[in-house]
Model the fold of this input.
Amino acid sequence: GDGGGPKLAGAGGKKGQGSQGQVHCKDKAARRLEWWQRLNEVKPELTLPEPQKGPSGAAYEPALASEAATRSTAAAHEAVVSIARTRLGKGQDWLVRDSDYGEAPAHANVKAKVNAALVRAIIDVSSGDLEAELAADPRKILLLLDTPQYGTLRELVEAFPGLRCCQQAVMPQADLRHYFEMVRGSEFYPGVRAQRMDHWLCANAPIGLKCLAAFLDYECRLVGAVSAPPSPAGGTL
Done:
C-alpha cells in the first residue's frame, strides 16, 4: 500500500503539470489570435472605383467605341465588383495571403518570353531612357509582382542596371514568407511592400503616383484559381 502512494502522487503531479501546460498553450494561442486581429485592424480601406469614362462620357474601351463594346465593358466591371463585394461581405479582406500556385509548375520558357516582351514594352514607353525618367520625377514608378527569385526584376536590371537599387520599382507582396525572403538578400533593393495589391492601390491612390508600366504576374485565371480564393480581377479593381 505504501509503495503505491508515491506512484499515485507522481501520476497526479504529472497530470497537474499537463493541465498547466494546456492552459499556457491556450493563453499563447489567445495572445496570437489577439495580435492577428489587431494587425488586421490597420489594413487600408478598400474602395471600388467606378468604370473609367471616355471623352463621350461612356465607359472607356480603347479602340472600340461601339455600343456592344460599351455594354461589354460595363458587364465585365460589374462582374468583378460582385466578386470583390462578396469577398468583403464574407469577411475575407485579410491583411495578407499565402501564395498558391496550384499544382502546375511555372513554365520557364513562357516566362522568359513574357519578361522579354515586358522589357521591350518599357523601352517603348520610356523612349529607352527609363532610369532618367524615374530620376526626374519621384512619383513615377514601375508596379510589378515578383517572387523571391526576382525573375522579372532580374530581366529588367539587365536592360536598366539602375533598377537594381531603386525604390520606384514597387512590388506589393502579400505573402509574408515571400516578403521576408525578398528583403533579406543584398542582390536587389527594390520597393517591396508587405501588402496585397488591392490594399497597396487603395492606400496610395491619393498620392498622385504615375505608373509607367505595370506587370501583374498572377499565376492563375483572371477570376481566381480553383484551389485559391483570391481573384486577380477582384484584387486589383
About this structure: The longest strand covers residues 210-215. Residues 1-12, 222-226 have pLDDT under 50 and may be disordered. The beta strands are 140-144, 169-172, 191-193, 210-215. The two ends are 76 Å apart (CA to CA).
